[in-house]
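Narrative summary of target 7.
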Amino acid sequence: MSYFGHQPVLIVPKAKRDQVNAILERHGYGPGNLSIECSGKAQSANAPATHYALECPADNAFMAAIRLAESIPGVHLKQGGRGPRKLDEELGKKNLKKRVK
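Modeled conformation, tokenized:
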């Protein structure tokens, strides 16, 4: 197993983005971890973001910080998988898609 033994997908409502980033920054990760803008599947391609996501390799310490953020209502964490396909799968479960800028 590599040093980065985890591949989390974290999906956060827009209203909780600053709160989640603050938790991650307090633990030495950041700023601006949640950089993938997402919106509802039924919205137009350039609709404003309603959620933000993070998908990246993580070590045990980063996972511990992410798990703290997971305790915030509305925050969705899925562990495992690799690459953007996993992110797209999790967004689909929430009826979301990556926002086109």
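The radius of gyration is 13 Å.
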